[in-house]
Amino acid sequence: MKATEVPAIAGAYLFEPTPYADERGFFCRTFDADVVRSVGIDPDAFVQDSVSRSVRGVLRGLHLRSGAGEAKLVRCSYGQIFDVVVDLRPDSPTYRNVATFELSGETQTTLYIPAGCAHGFQALTGTADTSYRIDRPHDPAEDVTIAFDDPELAIRWPLPATSMSQRDREAPSLAQVLKQRES
Fold first, then answer.
1. Catalytic-residue membership of 13
2. Phi, psi (5° rounding) for residue 68?
3. What is the reaction catalyzed (predicted)?
4. Which residues, 6+ apart, have CB-to-CB distance to 78 below 8 Å?
5. Could you say which of 13, 63, 112, 119 is catalytic?
6. What's the predicted TM-score (pTM) here?
7. Which residues lie below 8 Å from residue 49, measured CB to CB, with a gap of 6+?
């Protein structure tokens, strides 16, 4: 497994495994504590694993946690997703940068997203399973959502959004969220 720093988002990493394929399918290590530790991330900090299943065109996000935020490892375990990270840490050298990735079940690449970054994704295939490993128990009272189509972010989603939650549809702009965080 190889760890590669993401230049557009300070502290973000891609963990790229080596799938071993044969006539049966493939085998792949998707998490390696030693590799995670080698880039300064505490592998024991992760406390909760979750998975979502989405159909083509479903858009989830952009989501963020208030307070201390949450760091997460995100991997598309089946299918393919278009993944987006927005750095919203005011002290970060990459503050307000947007980075996009295609994650797939074929590569099993995992994206590490530091606390304080917003995250969202869109399913590109008929079925896309996305796995999350987060470093704090989820608290819905800390959920923050930013409009996926905010012109300030100018994210070029690859497909029209076929479905999303009401919370995501009604999300405020980045400017509104930042103003609320300042107060």
1. no
2. -75, -5
3. dTDP-4-dehydro-6-deoxy-alpha-D-glucose = dTDP-4-dehydro-beta-L-rhamnose
4. 105, 127, 128, 129
5. 63
6. 0.94
7. 131, 132, 133
30 exposed, middle or buried (CB, 10 Å; 0-12, 13-18, 19+)?
Answer: middle
In the residue annotation, 20 being an active-site residue is answered as no
Q: Checking DSSP bridges between strand 127-134 and strand 72-78, what pairing results, if any?
A: antiparallel
**What is the CA 173 to chain-centroid distance, rounded?**
19
Q: Is 135 helix (H, G, I), strand (E, B) or coil?
A: coil
* Active-site annotation holder among 20, 112, 132, 138: 132
